[in-house]
Amino acid sequence: MPILPLVFAVASLAQVPTAGHVSRGLDLVSAARVSDAGRVRELVAAGVPVDTVDRRGYTPLMWAAATGNAELAKYLLDSGAIVQTRAADGTTALFLAAANGAVDAVRLLLSRGANPLATREGLTPRQAAVSRSQADIVSLLEAAEGLGAQLIQAVSDGQAVSARQLVARGAPVNIVDGSGVTPLMFAARNGDLGTMVLLLSRGADGLARDAQGQSVVTWAEKSPSTRQYVVAFLRDRVPAAPALRGAPVAVPPIADTLRTLDALLTKSAPAAGPALDAHRRARAALTDLRTLSRNWPAESPADYRANLAIEATSLGAAIDGKDPQALQAVLEAVADDLEAKLEHCRQSGGRLGGSVLVRVRTVQAGAEASRWQVFYMPKIFEVSPSPSPDLFPQLSSPTEDLLVPGRYLMWVRNPATAAVGERTVVKVGEGRKELIVDLPVPAAGK
């Protein structure tokens, strides 16, 4: 049986990148995720798109904001990052900075026009800050919301002087009213080029649309007397909508990856010893998964397909490496992971089961300790020469993310001191929809 082609990659948990700009884009996101400013600058200077997105739709700016690295966030904004970029779930850089208590990052983003009313799952950044007791940030965002409301009114009424004063005081230029209308849209309707220049210079989004899908150009066309020159101005000053950056490369369907794994296991059968035991376990779990998969829908979640593809790429690389010890380690990791996936499917009534909401609490001396980063990666990455871990977007505690069933390594890191906790093996699955994990936090001074 021929082995289906799969690209070897360990740079992302849910994307299998090709060589070139896609993998470098993921490298940029990964560098921002761990605040590696030197690497970020190197990649941006090399031409990697500054708004590259990862599997969540998060940009480097979002990760810089999430980690509270205001200096890195400023560099990315100065390099052209769009402050209003939103992930599929509505997440913005401002939301992450607010939820994680990053005061300096919140100030920076507001000064660059971030909309404090942009919601994720119905929550504004201020509400997220309230839920996590970030009092200083709540005050900042309350003030921004108040100034923003005044700015909308001033621009709508054609009060250019008042609008300029409000912007100088820090009013967020991408604020919206109840209909999703921005100050720039009102200025375009009024034919107020001076205010439009001011708003655009402070980061106003010329590509924004209101709740009815109307663009800034549409709003400019509402005024017969000014629309001609305002539309011409917008076409000159506002760039075309950017192409999707960092789009995940398509990964094979589950059935194809299972066939690839079957072919790889046939190719890698050890003669004896622990490697043979791991091989038999992996083969048994794979056989049962292939049987169950016949009843799964043709369209399966991308994160599950990509996670499974990681096993095939890792096993293929180990076979090509011709290192018996490395192959044994990969076979053991593949066996553990396939068994965890199989168990989850069985506990889910034979269905695929899907991802699990993993809620992590960081604990020190029996009590929850807050403001820790939580990193994780598939356990199979443990034997990779260059693993790239993923990160829960919000600081603990608790923090949560959706993970595909399998075995993972998880650990904590203090973003202020860079102190790192011990790695813990976590099994995700067992038919659960949610899983609570307690991770130990290193004692002070360690």
Task: Summarize the helices and strands and which ones pair or pack.
Elements lengths: L20 H13 L3 H9 L14 H7 L3 H9 L14 H7 L3 H9 L13 H7 L3 H22 L3 H9 L14 H8 L2 H9 L14 H5 L6 H11 L16 H14 L6 H20 L8 H20 L2 H24 L8 E9 L2 E2 L4 E6 L11 E2 L7 E5 L2 E8 L10 E5 L5 E7 L6
Parallel strand pairs: 1-8
Antiparallel strand pairs: 1-2, 1-5, 3-4, 3-6, 6-7
Helix pairs in contact: 1-2, 1-3, 3-4, 3-5, 4-6, 5-6, 5-7, 6-8, 7-8, 8-9, 8-10, 9-11, 10-11, 14-15, 14-16, 15-17, 16-17
Mean pLDDT: 87
Q: What's the number of extended β-strand segments? A: 8
Give the helix tally.
17
Q: What is the CATH topology of the largest domain?
A: Serine Threonine Protein Phosphatase 5, Tetratricopeptide repeat
| Number of discrete domains | 3
Classify the helix fraction into a percent range. 40-55%
Oligomer: single chain
Give the CATH superfamily of the largest domain: Ankyrin repeat-containing domain
What does the main sheet amount to? 4 strands, mixed
Principal-axes shape call: elongated
- The CATH architecture classification of the largest domain is Alpha Horseshoe
Q: What's the end-to-end separation, in Å? A: 52 Å
Approximately what portion of the residues adopt beta-strand conformation?
A: 5-15%
Class by helix and strand content?
Answer: alpha+beta
